[in-house]
Amino acid sequence: MAHRWTNDLSRDDVTPRSVWLNRRQILAGLAGAGAVGIGGPVAADDGLQPNTLEEIRSYNNFYEFGLGKEDPMRNAGAMVTEPWSIRVEGLVDRPGDYSLSDLTDGLTVEDRIYRFRCVEAWSMVIPWNGIELADILERVGVQEGARYVAFETVVQPEVMIGVQRRVIEFPYVEGLRIDEAMHPLTLLATGIYDEPMANQNGAPIRLVVPWKYGFKSIKSIVRISVVAEEPPTTWSRANPREYGFYANVNPQVDHPRWSQATERRIGGGLFNRRQDTLMFNGYEDEVAHLYDGMDLSRFI
Ligand code: MTE
After folding, report:
1. 96: left (phi over 0), alpha (psi -120 to 50) or beta
2. Helix, strand, coil content of the chain in percent (nearest 5)
3. Which atom of ligand 1 is least distant from the CA of 153?
4. Is the pLDDT of residue 131 over 50?
């Protein structure tokens, strides 16, 4: 299905051209006009280059593996990701321990090129492969009374130096309101650039919520709980003055210690200038209605 936002930046910008042309011929043969969604013209609304796979895999936040940006790349290789089991619980028709394939097989893997904005004011553009979280929630059956979805990251203390040193409280936990979780932009991503998710990026499956600061995008998920009450989240628990539950990208609301008005695009090269941060990270048309009537300077 061709979503409008997939045309944001074209696949031509993120795939070596020879590979892409080849693939496009295949797609054209198979799907005809159906390929338009990922092969359409560049609407270079922010005129920036998407990131390379090397950049995406070498500048990470994954505190379980250390605090430095290159620590996850160095240390996350030791994480065991096979087999992988995800516990689904709470207000669902079909709770249980699902293997990754039980949870995802047969569902459509979408190609989505999204802006990614960290609360620390750096950003990337990432070509994800992922399944709409709504499809997975539908598979397990959301019951009446469900208002939030909570997520939890795996804990493997023997290979996670950040867990051994207790740099923050683990397991890392995150949550979304149910309408945010069901929004078609929200993905559970299993790959980047059609490559399986690297461990440092949250293998084998991680959340992607492109209109929120990156810390909402919890990695290496082992538990999904559909619940009635707002669940705790790692950063709002660690520092409630600085981080809230919503964490929507908003250039008008500064972090207590720095401005959120601009961002530094990773890999911007020699003349890398800061660029303006966009309201809802550029997805305002798609998501602003979710927050009608809320004071966006208060619900951060
Ligand atoms: N998930 C877990 N389990 N642990 C983390 O430390 N860091 C978050 C988020 N998900 C984090 C996490 C933060 S702060 C960001 S910016 C993104 O992951 C970074 O994702 P990336 O490394 O794939 O770019």
Report:
1. left
2. 30, 25, 45
3. 3
4. yes
Q: What is the pLDDT of residue 270?
A: 72
Residue 271 CA to ligand 1 centre (angstroms): 27
CB 223, CB 90: distance < 8 Å: no
For ligand 1, say whether the CB of 61 is within 6 Å of any of its atoms: yes
Domain spans of the chain?
11-291
What is the number of the ligand 1 atom nearest to the C-alpha of 235?
14
pLDDT tens digits, residue range 192-245?
999 999 999 999 999 999 999 999 999 999 999 999 999 999 999 999 999 999
In CATH, what class is 11-291?
Answer: alpha beta
Task: Give residues with Cβ within 8 angstroms of 175, minimum separation 6.
Answer: 148, 149, 150, 151, 230, 231, 232, 233, 245
Query: Above pLDDT 70, what percent of the chain?
Result: 84
Evaluate whether 76 touches 40 at the Cβ level (below 8 Å): no
d(CA 160, CA 152): 15
pLDDT tens readout for residues 170-197: 999 999 999 999 999 999 999 999 999 9
- For atom 19 of ligand 1, which residue has the closest CA? 61
- DSSP H or E run through 32: none
Measured in Å, residue 172 CA sits from the centre of ligand 1 at 10
Closest CA to 133 of 227, 207, 230, 232: 207
Q: How far is the CA of 61 from the centre of ligand 1 (A)?
A: 4
